[in-house]
TrEMBL record:
Pfam families: AhpC-TSA, DUF4369. This is Alkyl hydroperoxide reductase. GO terms for cellular component: cell envelope. Keywords: Cytochrome c-type biogenesis, Disulfide bond, Redox-active center, Signal. It comes from Pseudochryseolinea flava. GO terms for biological process: cytochrome complex assembly. One of its GO terms (molecular function) is oxidoreductase activity. Residues 256-395 form the Thioredoxin domain. Gene3D superfamilies: Glutaredoxin.
Amino acid sequence: MMAFMNATAMNISKVITITLLAFLACLSCSSTSKDDPKVTAAEPTQGGWVVTVKGSVLFPQKGKVTIQQVNESGVVWQDTVVLSAKNTFTKKVKLTEPGYYKINYYNRQIVDFILYKSNVEIIAAGNDPRGNVEIKGSPEIEIIRKVQQILQRAESSPAVAKLNEEFAAAAQAKDGAKMETLRKKYLTMVGDSVAPLLRNEPPSLGVINLLEGGQVLDRDLYIDTYVAVAEKIKKEWPNFEVGKNFVAAIEKVKALAIGQIAPEIALPDTTGQVVKLSSLRGKYVLVDFWAKWCGPCRAENPNVVEAFHKFKGKGFTVFGVSLDRNRQDWVNAIKADKLEWTHVSDLKYWNSEAAQTYSISSIPFSLLIDPQGKIIEKNLRGPALHAKLAEILKK
């Protein structure tokens, strides 16, 4: 996730954590390009393809090697891989749509990869969780590798070094407006290289994996790229569940884009009375998703309290949406943190109706909306919140 707006952060590029795929976060992977003769097409069959997965284990151990298909719910199926006397294997996998797969080597090393219409070769150490891995023949892994190279080049560039110096100075001075400007400049510097690459790629789980978390390409700055990729997937992958899921997710992202009207929230307050977000029209409102049990939320609360008292007389307020489960815990936290604004919750934890509407996957999460209910900023924290409020309420 991105966490640029920590005022103690001294390095704008180091504050970003990018999760491409689990194996790219901790392993050194390589793959051949789509034009490499080693990329071979899978065998078409009725209703799908048969993909050949070849592999070599450099340091075989006692135990089993298994191949698994996985999704967000866990393991879909698995099968044992039998090694030859030369510690190689060949496995035929029948697919009806693209999918995420893993090979588990003796419970010592797990390699993640993607299967679609190309045969794949995997060379792995097999004896160490961080052992070397080479994946050949996968266009999906190739696009991820290309983006990783863009990020690595940006990280070591003189331009980013200069941004780091400016960001450090702004953070030291607690200049929230400057920090926000530098944050967007960094995201644009990276995004302007990544976005055209992803827009021109054919539909693939590699592209989906890079986009679906919003870590690599900022959703608000590059919403047009997200929409373009979703439209391409909708057209070319109309029957694939992975494609349908991505398209549905981007529809939600579009609804929450900057400039859109914030979806209605109508939940009980601490007395049980249902309060609507729209009842606060006419004011600038910080919609703040939080919970008693959320440490980072509680740490940010003093900053929000300060902003509330500083700007409440100028047409600003806060609408707190709690993901708590216990009413008393919720009420006690409100009192302890002196949160003197409207609070609502259905006490359904992550299953909160508002959390589902806003696709909340982590908290704290906030949106700043204008008097007409339009979203104008997201996740303003620390000095950045004060700077933005001072800018829009200066009249």
